[in-house]
Amino acid sequence: MYQHQGEDVFVIDGHIHMWDASEENIKHRGGEQFIQCFYDYHTAFTPEERQRGIDDYRKFTPEEVKRDLFTNYVDMGVYQPTHLHEFYTEGFNTVDDLGGTLFKEHPDRFVLNGRWDPRDGEAGMKELERQKEEYDIKGAKVYTAEWKGDSKGWRLDSDEAFEFLQKCADLGVKNIHPHKGPTIRPLNKDAFDVADVDLAASSFPELNFIVEHVGLPRLDDFCWIATQEPNVYGGIAVAAPMALSRPKKFSEIMCELLYWLGEDQLTFGSDYGIWDPDWVIEAVMETELSAEQHAEYGVEFGLEAKKKLMGENIAELYDIDIEERKKAFQTDAISEEFGLGESYGAAAPADD
Amino acid sequence: MSQTAPSNRPESEETAGLHDRIRARLDRVTDPELDESILELGYIDAIELDEWTATLRFTLPTAWCSPAFAWMMAVDARDELESLPEIDEARIELRDHMHEREINEGVNGRLPFADAFPDADGEVRSVRATLDDKARLSRQYLAVERLLAAGLSPEQIVALTPADLRFDPDVDPRMDGARASIALGDGAFSVSVPARPLDRYLRKARDVGHATSDDDPLFLTPEGEPIEVEAFELVRRRGRLARTNVTGQGGVCDALNEQRRAKLDRDGPVIVEAD
Q1: Tens digits of per-residue pLDDT, B147-179?
Q2: Measured on CA atoms in the order B247, B249, B253, B258, is the torsion positive or negative?
Q3: Contact indicator for A201, A227 with CB cutoff of 8 Å
Q4: What CATH number matches the domain at B13-123+251-273, 1.10.1240.10, 3.20.20.140, 3.30.300.130, 2.115.10.20?
Q5: Shortest CB distance from B134 goes to which of A37, A220, A238?
Q6: What is the value of pTM for the model shown?
Q7: ipTM > 0.90 (yes/no)
Q8: Mutate to test the interface with A, among B69, B72, B119, B241 (most CBs of A within 10 A)
């Protein structure tokens, strides 16, 4: 468990993947462009000594994911699927990729999110039901810029999307994570417009909308919507790595988020494997607002706010009892494997 | 990026003046998403001056940056350079981009965007309008901050019209040290402020159809309405947010750009005289 100034900080990484962009799995040139684009983001922000080679970056195995997360300060991870079947034969990062592996072995360490696409129609509804039944999903990632046939994207406020949102409400899939972030080649930029979240959020007050990547480069539209809708949250994945190399920009973004949304509406995500979580978590936790920022914005980003961001807020969304988990993690298989029990308060093994 | 302009011959006063005026013109060419000049953003590799022609070479932060945005930057740069009396023809060379051929041939051949990109979905204009309106708000924030710093009150700021704003007709407002004056109290007195932020704001406001006649309000709400003084602070905060959005996204692009330029080994003097 991460420690900050002598205090435990329970980290739920709200945005993780386990993808396969190996050359064998790519079926459309968009698949190669997509992973190369991710790799540009990886190398632009990752400290040089922590950068991966492109071959290593193409595919993550369950063993790697387990080690990369749990030996790098993460206590739990929220898996956000990205299917992209138009680009990848077996999909890029599918529900079953984690569902059939790490989630099955370590269900307490992961939140496995589902995924739907309104263009899938009746078959998509059945698939959503299957995900609920098989994995008891409580949330879903939606990727409005995904290609399907001739379509280059869809909107959350369409009639078809509303049918799926209603289905989510009926099934108790209450956390919807729309990806609204920077351009990813070759996807269409407009399909990441945040405006469609507004009507969806006001029409489904029983659902929560966690806007991933806080809408960048539409932070302004996102914040304005979020101030008006109490069920809209911001996930800071993609903004977070700026904490290391662009600290002033990161703290300005945090000031805006704290000012418009408040500290209870924000969740953390490393976006693993775009970036590894260790240095991102350290950089966010070390962020201090300047005296001018305190004066200008009138917000605080102290330990309490950081603990909410790092885990407490998303724990609330997914009904996770952090104290209960800590206790369970004293002796679970992950802690056994990586020697983490003591960090969760287990007695140190007797010395002889 | 080097701020001086090395050249093979001693720099005369005239060429130094031309280099400064080239910079002042290129200060108007922005990355439409980041609303910052391509000079400031470090996209320009070189500007070669040869008699009456200029060749501008530039590289974007990624090979897959929006071709529509790349197009806008290339066209704007060409037109700004050609607005100088010393430059008859400007040629543009975008480098290491997926669509460099379409863009360079199209811009240098003076084609419309739709001819260079017959497959484009035709949404360039509306995307540009949305970005322009955000840029207008972000620039308003910077201009208003300058006016507050110069001692103007919110009541005075919301009452300003374009007629109250005066630029020196003999100096490019984008040049270092250029000043503008703001007439207050029905012209009874005036306050001197830096010209650049006000020129930047006014240009963008006019691009989106605001502040066009002398008695229009100079500053507006995000929705384009006159600002009630009670709403001044909220409008200011929304402008600040628009500003944080562009500079935040600028941070993402800047990191991509820095890494790419290092990889391509692409930094040198910006303006060079060929002879």
Answers
A1: 999 999 999 999 999 999 999 998 899 998 999
A2: positive
A3: no
A4: 3.30.300.130
A5: A220
A6: 0.92
A7: yes
A8: B241
